[in-house]
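Exercise: predict the fold of this chain.
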Amino acid sequence: MGFTTTFDGLNRIWDRDFRNAVFHSDHAIFGSEVRILSPARTYSMTEVSTLVNGALSYLCVIMVLEIYHRQSYSEPRIIPTSPHFAGHPALRWVVIVREGHGVAGVKDAWSVEELRSGQIRLRLGRFSRAEIEMLNQDPMLALLPGRSMPNGV
């Protein structure tokens, strides 16, 4: 489908054995080397620096892409729901947007009448207590006022 090189960059910075050894504290630093036991291998500091810097660079790219795409939403919009997610064929999502921030979450797109008839309210996102209260009071609300967020989250 044209994605044959999509993971080339990730493959250059991913070393499963090194990652597992570091994650499980199954490594030793000896002089200017890092040694792992399973499989037995020694990494030079240059190799370690290349892996760590590559992983950090990859993480930074993912973070920038996430922020860019989140902020590309300036107003709520309705999006389809995967049939594998919900058992109700009519369920759609409303993207909840926080002014000056972008996507804050999603919620069901049920109308007031559908909610009164027994449809269950669904909501997923990262909200302050005040925003949760606003969303609970007004089930049609999907545009939240802006607020200061730590670290642009």
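Check your answer against the key: The first strand starts at residue 27 and ends at 30.
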